[in-house]
Each structure stands twice: as C-alpha cells, then as structure tokens.
Specification:
The complex is a heterotrimer of chains A (238), B (301) and C (238).
Chain A: H1 2-10, H2 15-18, H3 21-36, H4 42-59, H5 64-71, H6 75-87, H7 91-112, H8 117-126, H9 131-160, H10 166-197, H11 214-237
Helix pairs in contact in A: 3-7, 3-11, 4-7, 4-11, 5-7, 6-7, 8-9, 9-10
Chain B: H1 10-34, H2 40-53, E1 58-60, E2 64-66, H3 71-78, H4 80-97, H5 106-128, H6 134-159, H7 166-197, H8 211-232, H9 235-245, H10 248-264, H11 269-299
Antiparallel strand pairs in B: 1-2
Helix pairs in contact in B: 1-4, 1-5, 1-11, 2-4, 3-4, 3-5, 3-6, 4-5, 5-6, 5-8, 6-7, 6-8, 8-10, 8-11, 10-11
Chain C: E1 5-13, E2 19-28, E3 33-38, H1 44-51, E4 58-63, E5 66-67, H2 73-79, E6 80-83, H3 87-90, H4 96-106, H5 111-124, H6 140-152, E7 158-162, H7 170-182, E8 186-190, H8 194-200, E9 203-208, E10 211-217, H9 218-225
Parallel strand pairs in C: 3-8, 3-9, 6-7, 7-8
Antiparallel strand pairs in C: 1-2, 1-4, 4-5, 9-10
Classes of the chains: A mainly alpha (238), B mainly alpha (301), C alpha/beta (238).
Chain lengths: 238, 301, 238
C-alpha cells in the first residue's frame, strides 16, 4: 500500500525532516496561496515552482522520481477537469487547473514525506486546530492499515470461495461490510479496555511539546519568501 | 467529488475556508457533548473502517461496481455530529496522505461532504427513522448525502468560472444521480446487515424530535444546494434548463433576490457571478446553522 | 505479608444471563507465578478482567489488600499490569515511546519522568532502539515486548498475561519465555502453552465451566487434564 512508502520517507534525517512541523505547514500554505492566486505567465511559473520543489525534495533526500510519480496520482481527476475546461472553450484555464493541482499535490507531498503524520497533527494542534478532531485523525491513521488489511483478507477469502453471482454479490458485500464494522467496533472496545487497564484518567496526556527554534524561523522566512519572489520575478519578466 | 487545488477561484475557496472554521468547530463541540475523550479511539477506528470499506466492491450489473462513501452510514450509527467529525478526519487524511483533494480546497470539501453531506444524509433518518418508511428514509439519506455534496461541488466549480455547458452539467448530474442511488442502496443494505448482527449498532432517532424543524431543515439543505446550482450557472443556460425541467418558478424564487446582487454589481462580470455564488454559499451556510440549532434543541430527548 | 490477590466466591453473568463465573476462589502470593489453564470459554479471560476492574461481578476481589471499588481503581491499575492477547489493540499510540509512556503519564508523572520510565522499560525488554517506530510496523514478537514494556513502565507488582504466545512463532515464544523468567513480578498467566506454564509457573489452576476444577503443581494439572499438545491421548487416561 502506498502509505508505507510515505511512512518510510517521513522518518528520514535530513535538515528538512528536523524542522518544526509548524514551520513546514506554514511554508506550505504560503506556497499554495502564491500558486493559487497566480494568473500570469503560468507555464513559466509552473516550471520555476517545479524546480523549487524538486530542489527541496533533493535537499530532503526524498526519492525525486518517486515523489513526482506519487503527485501524479491527482492527474486522472485533474486531467478530466482540464478536458472539461478545454472543451468548454477555456484552454488557459485547462492548463491552469492541471498545472496548479499537480504542483499543489507535490508541495503537500514535500511536507508529508518529511514529517511523520502524528508529528504534523501535533503541530496543527499547537496552532489551534481542535484537539478532539486531531486525535480522531491520529487514531484513524494508526488503525487505517490494520483495518484495511482485514478488509483485504475478507476480499481474498470471498474471492477464493468464488462468489460472483450478481444479487448474491451485493448482499454478500453488505454482509462483509457489516462484519468489518462489527470487528472494528470490537477492536475499539479492546483499545478502550487497554486504555483503562493502564489507568486512563479520562483525558489523553501527550509527551511532546514542540520547540520552535531559530532554524525553524529561518526556514519559514526563506520558504515563504522564495515562491513570492520567484513569482514576482517571473511576472516582471513576462 | 473531492475538489483539488487550482479548480476553484480565490474568492470561492477563501470564503469557504473561512466559513469552514466555525462550522467545523461547532460540529466538534457538538460531538464532544456525547463522545468524551475515551471514545476518541472509537471514532478513529470507525474512520479507518470507512476507508477500508471503500475496498469492498458492490457489483452493479453490467460489470461495474461501486463502493460505500459512508457519510449516511456513520450518521445512522454515530449520530450526525460525530459522523461529521469522523468525515473531517477522513477528508484531512485523504488530502494529506493520499493527495486526494487539495489543501486550500479543504474548506469546500469539508463543508460539502463532512457538514452538509452528513446533514443531508442524516435528516431523512431523523424524520422518518421511526416510521414504516424507515427503509426508504435510510436509502434517501444515503442518496442525498452524495447528491448534495456533488451538487455543491459542481456549483462551486461553476461559480469559479469552469466553463460547463448545459449538457455537461446535465451529464454530471446524471452521473451523480447514479452514484447517489448506489450509495443509498449500499447504505440500506449495510444498515440491515448490521441490525442482523447487533441491533444496537444503529441508533434510534430521538423521541422528542421536531418533525417540522427537521423537514424544514431537509428542504432547506436540498433547495439551497439546488438553488445554488441554478444561481451559479450562466443565465441563458438556466433559461432553457428551467424551461425543459419546468423548474422555472423555483429558479425565479432563488435568482430574484440574487438578481438584486447582479444588478448592483453589474459592472464586473466575474464579480457578479462570484457575488451570486457567494450569496448562495451564505444561504447554504445559514441553513446549516439553523438546522444545526433546530436539531440540537430537539434531538436531545 | 498480605496476599497480592485474594478472590472469594466471584460470580459473573453476561448480559444475556449466561453465567460466566460461578463462584471462583483464587489467591496469589508475592513472587508467585500461576498458570490459568482450561478450555476456551471456560472463564479464564473473563476472570482476569475482574482483577483490575474491567468487569465487575459479585463476590470479593482484593488486590494488595485494596478491595475492588471505584475509588481504588487507579491504585489497583497501577499494581496490576495487564497484557492483552492482541497487542495491536494494546499499542494504540502513534510511536513506541508515546505508547509506553502512556501509563506513566496517566499516573501523574512529568513528561521527563514518563519518558525516562518508558526508556528504561524498553531497555528491559530489549526494544530501546524502536522508540520512534510506529507500532504497526513491528513484528508480533516486538509488539508483545513493547506491550510488556508499557506495563513495566508503571512499576506494577503483578503481571497478568492473557495468552501471550498467540501469534508468536517458536523462536518468539522462547524469547518471550526468557524475558518473562527475568521479570521479578508475580505473574498470572492465562495460557494454552503447557511448556510455557511449566517453565514459568509454580502452580496451575484449571478452569472448567466458570469454576476452578482443580489446583496444584503445573505438571500434575497438565497430566490430569491432558493439557499438553505433545502428549499422546492415551497417556492422560493413566
């Protein structure tokens, strides 16, 4: 499953990996906004931003080809949207849609491939996102692959029993989902028991405060300025 | 149904990102009233379940298959607020880890799917879940959760200036309808299978609920979505669409107040369109707040 | 010295009325290791869940002299550490370190002390190198050891292990047996593994239909009930 690759990448040790997740996320937002609000000289700007992201990925020692390919996951949907724009008589918008969505995905990937998700969530909590929601996301991520594997096993088991009858197939799939639901519910009960057994007092405590250091501030300043300056330069040239 | 970065115009995604903050905050607080921290793992695990459930294929006749989206199912089992929170977590993880949906587009995606989609998925069950029409209500909830989300996404794209002719809009709506009906069927089938395993899994709608408020809420969400769509398509496009479907009078109901906006700002075309669109968003958001308060007041039996 | 665990006439029904425990008497002395043997469904797991208040039935349960009551639960849950059968549900935090520190944090330790206690416990189970790893990626044996560390970090007096060798291959089982032999705490071991019971436990208790049918040295119980995978069926008749 592809997340496993992302997990591996995110546990590297490059300077970018070591930056505070808040600085990376803030830099990401600046980049995305600069990109989203750009309307002139798009092909040139896109090329420049692609180079910027590629350089960042290389600095972070994330496999570049792999990252470029992974960002391309968005293409099936975005090329379709681009086609709609093209056929609707707006080729400029078609290009804009495809370029911007790809670069956005690559930018997000740059952050997520250098920050383990739980750390990113902790950073988001520290900037004010609702803790309850972030913790739900944390547990979702923790058990995402566990339960997906269970679903995978159910699928293989069903396939090996060779069921392909149409109406039977629908009902059987619903039954399989219900069983998966029940198993997930039971697992949640097991987790709860394990929490209680270790004296859970009603509130989660966390180990980590994050320390925002000078290096993080420097990185944020640089990463926020770079896309803005690049865009300004290109728009002046064009 | 997920909107990617670069699809929407700046006023649209920015306004919806801003609108999403209090909306999500409200929903989280509502969920926390019923689910304390010890139940966070349950919500997380149910979110993981929805992800995993998308791997299970439901055969649909001609060699195609669909899969569960999950908003209505979660609403029937966890309640609308918790379901919304779980869906927010799902959408966020989809965007961050799987590059499925944009980051600046999180506001629109969350509002479309986690807030209004879940609400539309729950209200039929809220209204008719204790009547002999229960099965139809569950089906309708599933269908509406997908339909409302899809229509809102389509409308947001149109307001942003994506050029879609009548026929393209029509084809899109038809495709959405197919997946909506499928979601309804899957949701119903799974709810029935769940009840066979353990009836307690599926909630009973509160006894002291207000039918009037719920019905008003449901009508508001549906009409707001549809109305937003009409308001956002080009005027001449609407004319013929309105004529063909006979929905002219409904359309007039919605574009008349918005026509005021269009007249006042008739200088800039993009401003006109965007303003009309944003007004539509405001209507939908206002409807959401009203419904939320209405359901909240009555739903605590 | 008071007994670590004193259970008298413990009775418990499931929600549908079926009796699960029908009057169980049990005791555990300091430093003892007791094996709970018996068929699936005989009440072993249900019984141990009463020891830390996850379930509550009728009769009396005392842990280290404290009667099982709501007010005593935090203290009791520190003294009894429970390792569940499925480690996947027990290791619910995003990283190994955070998970092992969960218990200490719940006991009111500061972040630093909790982290130190976690590291020390991980050292004891030889998993110190894994502190930043995600539990999902660990092998079954590694997960079990981290689960044990999560308990040890709370400094318990009694370890309760429910079928610890499930999911483990023979080398994993041997490594687990060695680890458990090194730990000084008194142990209650629910197991089907007669070899493990023999190597670790001085006494065995045989559950049958919600009651303790017999109690005595491990070898005696194993032979009497034929509770050994390796033994021939005819031997148990002697």
């Amino acid at each position: 499953m592809h997340h496993v690759v992302l997990e591996r990448w995110s546990r590297g040790a490059s300077p970018l990996h070591r930056r505070d997740p808040r600085s990376k996320f803030a830099a990401l937002l600046v980049f995305l906004v600069v990109l989203a609000t750009a309307h002139r000289a798009l092909p040139l700007l896109a090329a420049a931003f692609l180079l910027l992201l590629a350089a960042t990925l290389l600095w972070a020692r994330v496999p570049l080809a792999g990252a470029l390919r992974r960002a391309a996951l968005v293409l099936p949907f975005t090329l379709l949207a681009g086609a709609v724009c093209w056929l609707g008589g707006d080729p400029a918008r078609a290009l804009s849609v495809v370029l911007k969505s790809y670069l956005s995905a690559l930018a997000v990937l740059t952050v997520v491939s250098t920050t383990p998700l739980p750390l990113l969530l902790r950073g988001l909590e520290l900037v004010g996102a609702p803790r309850f929601l972030l913790m739900v996301a944390q547990f979702l991520y923790r058990y995402l692959f566990v339960i997906s594997e269970e679903a995978q096993h159910m699928r293989s088991a069903a396939a090996s029993r060779g069921f392909a009858r149409r109406s039977g197939g629908f009902r059987a799939a619903a039954g399989a989902l219900a069983v998966l639901f029940a198993r997930s519910y039971a697992r949640a009960a097991e987790i709860h028991r394990a929490m209680l057994a270790r004296a859970f007092p009603g509130r989660f405590h966390t180990l980590g405060a994050l320390r925002f250091r000078a290096a993080d501030a420097a990185f944020l300043a640089l990463a926020a300025l770079a896309p803005a300056l690049i865009r300004a330069a290109i728009e002046r040239l064009a | 149904m997920h909107i990617y970065d670069g699809f929407l115009s700046t006023p649209v995604w920015a306004a919806m990102d801003v609108a999403a903050v209090p909306a999500v905050g409200y929903m989280v607080r509502r969920a926390q009233r019923e689910f304390d921290e010890s139940r966070i793992p349950l919500l997380g695990v149910m979110g993981a379940f929805v992800f995993a459930a998308q791997m299970i294929n439901f055969p649909v006749g001609i060699g195609t298959s669909g899969h569960l989206v999950g908003g209505a199912l979660l609403a029937c089992t966890l309640g609308p607020a918790a379901a919304g929170v779980v869906l927010c977590a799902i959408i966020a993880i989809q965007a961050l880890v799987f590059q499925d949906g944009g980051i600046l587009a999180l506001g629109p995606n969350l509002i479309n799917m986690a807030i209004l989609g879940v609400l539309a998925g729950y209200l039929p069950y809220y209204l008719w879940g204790r009547t002999p029409w229960r099965k139809a209500a569950i089906f309708l909830g599933g269908a509406l959760s997908v339909m409302v989300s899809a229509i809102l996404a389509l409308a947001e794209l149109l307001v942003s200036g994506v050029p879609m002719s009548r026929s393209v809009v029509g084809v899109s709506l038809a495709l959405f309808l197919v997946s909506a009906l499928l979601e309804g069927a899957i949701t119903l089938a799974v709810v029935q299978a769940l009840e066979a395993i353990q009836p307690g899994f599926v909630r009973r709608p509160a006894a002291g609920r207000s039918f009037a408020r719920g019905a008003l809420g449901l009508a508001a969400v549906v009409l707001a979505a549809v109305g937003f769509l009409f308001a956002s398509t080009a005027p001449d496009g609407i004319e013929s669409l309105g004529h063909t479907t006979g929905m002219d009078h409904v359309r007039r109901l919605f574009t008349t107040p918005l026509a005021g906006y269009q007249l006042a700002l008739s200088g800039e075309p993009w401003l006109r369109k965007t303003a009309a669109g944003l007004a539509g968003i405001a209507i939908v958001y206002g409807a959401c707040l009203l419904i939320g308060r209405g359901v909240a007041r009555r739903g605590r039996a | 010295m008071p007994r670590l665990i004193e259970v008298r006439n413990l009775r418990f029904h499931y929600e549908d009325g079926t009796p699960a425990l029908r009057g169980v008497d049990f005791h555990l002395e300091a430093g003892e290791s007791v094996a709970l043997l018996g068929a699936n469904g005989s009440g072993k797991t249900t019984f141990v869940m009463h020891l830390n208040g996850l379930l509550s039935g009728e009769g009396s349960v005392e842990v280290c002299g404290l009667p099982l009551q709501k007010a005593n639960l935090p203290a009791i849950r520190r003294k009894i550490g429970m390792v569940f059968q499925d480690s996947e549900s027990q290791l619910f935090m995003p990283t190994v370190l955070e998970d092992v520190a969960f218990g200490p944090l719940n006991l009111g330790m500061t972040r630093q002390d909790a982290a130190s206690a976690a590291r020390a416990a991980l050292e004891t189970v030889s998993m110190a190198a894994a502190i930043h790893r995600a539990p999902y990626h660990l092998s079954a044996g590694e997960k079990k050891r981290v689960a044990i560390a999560g308990i040890l970090a709370m400094n318990p007096e009694i370890l309760v292990l429910d079928e610890p060798t499930t999911f483990l291959d023979p080398p994993g089982q041997r490594a687990l047996a060695e680890l458990l032999a090194r730990l000084p705490q008194a142990k209650v071991l629910v197991t089907h593994d007669a070899a493990l019971a023999r190597s670790l436990c001085t006494r065995a208790v045989f559950f049958q239909d919600g009651l303790i049918a017999a109690e005595g040295p491990v070898e005696e119980i194993v032979n009497r009930f034929g509770w050994d995978f390796a033994s021939e069926p005819s031997q148990s008749a002697r």
